[in-house]
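Sample intake sheet
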Amino acid sequence: MANVTKTFELGRETVVAVDDVDLRVECGEFVTIFGVSGSGKSTLLRLIAGLDRATAGSVRVLGTDLNSLDDRSLGSFRLRNVGVVFQDNQLIEEFTALENVILPLLAAGVGRAAAEAEAVKLLGELGIAGLAGRSIEQMSGGQRQRVGIARALAGERPVLLADEPTGALDSGNAHALFASLRGLADGGRAIVTATHDPRALDYATHNYVIDDGRLRLRENVT
């Protein structure tokens, strides 16, 4: 994204959520955006996902200018290329892990056998292939988050956005989840996470801080 600003109108007041931000993320990188609640980090993810549109500036994902797409084309682009994991993961409790992960694949027209094969592969990449037949309501918070990530990546989507993915996890599960995200980046995906969890510093390739909508580089790690 280049020179991106996002404002909201609240009554007579204009609130600047993202202020003239430049950010470039390559495939194979795991980028974290640190910030307190209300700093603009979730809005930044929504802009990358095309869930919100920039007030000014350009947002390009995989070479496509999101501002040039109408709502229908944008939804189709996101379904093929961008996975989003929310803090509450928005999984269907009564469904199994496998059933949750195949949903976007079936929506994209993939046959059930092929969808199930890809879902098992994704769950395996995240270390929970053995939970494919378990319902979400029987899983721990860390297991649920991994299922959410697998579903977000279904369809070989190369970009993953995660909003506070460790917010409800204990220390051990948080480290395991960040390790999984780093592994996905090392495998060639672009990962961007909004977080205030300092444990991410041990795993990310690049770290940024956003404060009052302004983004700055925090430090680089390997």
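Comment: Residues 93-155 form one domain. Residues 171-186 form the longest helix (16 residues).
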